[in-house]
Amino acid sequence: MSSDGKLYFDMDMKIFQKKVYNFLERPSRGWICFAYHFMVFLIVLFCLVIGVICTIGEYEEKITQKFIYVETFLLVFFASEYIIRVWSAGCRAKFKGWIGRFHFMRTPISLIDLFVVLASSVVIGFHISGRIGSANPVMAASPALRIIRFFQILRMLHVDRKAHSWKLLLNVAYLHRIELITTMYMGFIVLIVTSYLVYLAERDYIIEGTRPFESYADALWFGIVTVATIGYGDRVPHTWPGRIVTACLSMVGIAFFSLPAGILGSGFALHVQQKEKQKNVS
Question: Span 179-198, mean pLDDT?
Fold first, then answer.
């Protein structure tokens, strides 16, 4: 190949490399790119649903044996995509060369992709070798293998590679940090004070030979469950002073702890409006 031909080939390869990088790393560019990433999202969601079903005892063995072929295909798919991502990252100046590729592989989302591929390889390897199955239930239920399976769940982070959602949340929280800190501080003060009052009112009450509020920690747990509007019912005030304090906690505490949701909601709305105004101006 002549020098001119090699030069044109290198230029075409760089253009192709940049197109591949934009296609994989910037999903908003074109409907084909969006369709590909939406397909990946559906695949990841499907894997998550199957992974949840596999933890149910009566379905675990049947689904796991059949799903191993799908898992193998997904391993090849995500491993190939990871290699292509590392190769295409060379179109950017900071990721050029072997050292630049290594820096790209050290980014958080690339590390997660690598962990997912390695975790899937380990799980598939155990299945192929026959070490996971009805013949070896101890190995199937080992804590190490459960941790490895957890990395497969991290495929959901593959959908938002640039972490735009997390950046938006952190940006809104930072802009409204004063309001959030103030409301959470006041809510925390109300929680610890009223929980202690409930403890004082209920600590001597005995039901069926036990004291529901034996310690301040029990009362604090009760207060957290109350302001979170969960209401497990494992601890209930039985004295009238305790009930009155709990009523005050329900009205005041819940109001303070629900304010951060309203602050963040209004912050998101204002942020979206500002983005729309910037688009209209530009």
Answer: 90
